[in-house]
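protein under study:
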Amino acid sequence: MDKPEAILPWLGMVNAIVAADGGADAVLAAGAQPDAVIGDMDSLSAVARSVIPDAKMHPVTEQDSTDFDKALRHVSAPLVIGLGFLGARVDHELAAMTVLARHADRRCILLGSEDLVMLCPPRLALDLPAGTRVSLFPLGPVTGRSTGLRWPLDGLEFAPALRGGTSNEAVGGPVEIATDQPLMLLILPLSCLGPVRSALASQPASWPARA
């Protein structure tokens, strides 16, 4: 979802637009103005610099983290919708997913052209139609429990090189997932964004911030 026309429909659903470095160019190309630009500013175009007020520019010069990491840790919001981090380069996708686990206390949903990706909170209950694809991918050793899935998670030990949980599916009705570590990615069809947002708003439990 890296083309300006792809992000345009989503901009109206947020209260503020924060661009990660060169993402500001995509925001401008979509006909919007970012409320803030955060990053090391190495990929921001000269055109964007000329039309975005200096007061909206927030450079973070360290080079030990990605621009997504810089942006996520410097904004405060009950829910962050991330656009432009899925699709195109696989290394960037993997880095973005790692950031979700690094900042497990932040509620963030990444949107792609087909799917959404988020880190599972300690507990999550969703109303999903029967047959909805529910994929789970571990970023480290993690166990879980579930109801409403065709293949339950109970009693299984997940780890990247040992066991994943992709291509599971909802059997109809509530799907409940609980995990013991902030290391499990939840991957759902993009059409599930509404139920996911509603579930996160009604279920306040979240992971503590990492030290």
Notes: Helices lie at 4-11, 23-29, 46-51, 67-73, 90-102, 193-202. DSSP finds six helices and 13 strands in the chain. The chain has a mean pLDDT of 93.
